Amino acid sequence: GAVVSQHPSRVICKSGTSVKIECRSLDFQATTMFWYRQFPKQSLMLMATSNEGSKATYEQGVEKDKFLINHASLTLSTLTVTSAHPEDSSFYICSARPGGGKETQYFGPGTRLLVL
Amino acid sequence: QKEVEQNSGPLSVPEGAIASLNCTYSDRGSQSFFWYRQYSGKSPELIMFIYSNGDKEDGRFTAQLNKASQYVSLLIRDSQPSDSATYLCAVNGGGGADGLTFGKGTHLIIQP
């Protein structure tokens, strides 16, 4: 149980284009999903908290107009990197929390983004 | 600002020995503590979580929490080469609504 998927697993795009990443909880409902970013040799950094049916909460320093988050249902959250630039190249990982008082987060397999 | 500190390593342990991984955190209000394992190029996978002071055992793994010292540790008994990975300590402020604050991880190498 507690499986989280991400799509795509890898994407290469040109500078200036937008990229959408999907995060799905496959066998549970997640009222809260989280988006993290990991640069090489660094740890995961929380970007934003995505709540179903409401606006996402962004961490300090993360541009909400650049990283658009939509949590349209209890099993799906999307992250759109708008007007991507090479410095946005990173490993983007989502996680989902089953809720019901449990705080454990389960991570998706990640999406590796390369912006040329 | 919440901080989680870990020794980056690498920590080299002979196969079959006990590996001891340590973590300290700055936010005294933290309530939930997690250990994740991350293989190169992969996303983290949950090993254990601990909420209360003391020890918590799960198979070959034991998590230890000391809130007074703001210290969390992970012991791996009978270490196997497949345990070689980066181990991430993560802390949650409580309430479940917060994302996790991660340490930079300790690179563990189990020598056959």
3D architecture notes:
The complex is a heterodimer of chains A (116) and B (112). Chain A has 116 residues and is mainly β. Chain A contains no helices and eleven strands. Chain A has strands at 4-7, 10-13, 19-25, 32-38, 45-51, 57-58, 67-73, 76-81, 90-97, 106-107, 111-115. Chain B has no helices and eleven strands. Chain B has strands at 4-5, 11-14, 19-25, 32-38, 45-50, 54-58, 61-66, 71-76, 85-92, 101-102, 106-111. At the A-B interface, strand 4, strand 5, strand 9 and strand 10 of A face strand 4, strand 5 and strand 10 of B.
Question: Brief overview, please?
Answer:
The complex is a heterodimer of chains A (116) and B (112). Chain A is an all-beta fold and 116 residues long.
CA-to-CA gap between the ends of chain B?
A: 40 Å
Distance between the termini of chain A: 37 Å
Quaternary organisation: heterodimer
| Number of helical elements of chain A | 0
Tell me, what's the shape of chain A?
Answer: globular
Largest sheet of chain B: 6 strands, mixed
**Count of individual beta strands of chain B:** 11
Q: What brief labels describe this structure?
A:
heterodimer; A: 116 residues; mainly beta; seven-stranded mixed β-sheet; four-stranded antiparallel β-sheet; 11 strands; 51% strand; B: mainly beta; six-stranded mixed β-sheet; five-stranded antiparallel β-sheet; 0% helix
Topology (elements, then pairings):
The complex is a heterodimer of chains A (116) and B (112).
Chain A: E1 4-7, E2 10-13, E3 19-25, E4 32-38, E5 45-51, E6 57-58, E7 67-73, E8 76-81, E9 90-97, E10 106-107, E11 111-115
Chain B: E1 4-5, E2 11-14, E3 19-25, E4 32-38, E5 45-50, E6 54-58, E7 61-66, E8 71-76, E9 85-92, E10 101-102, E11 106-111
Parallel strand pairs in B: 2-11
Antiparallel strand pairs in B: 1-3, 3-8, 4-5, 4-9, 6-7, 7-8, 9-10, 9-11
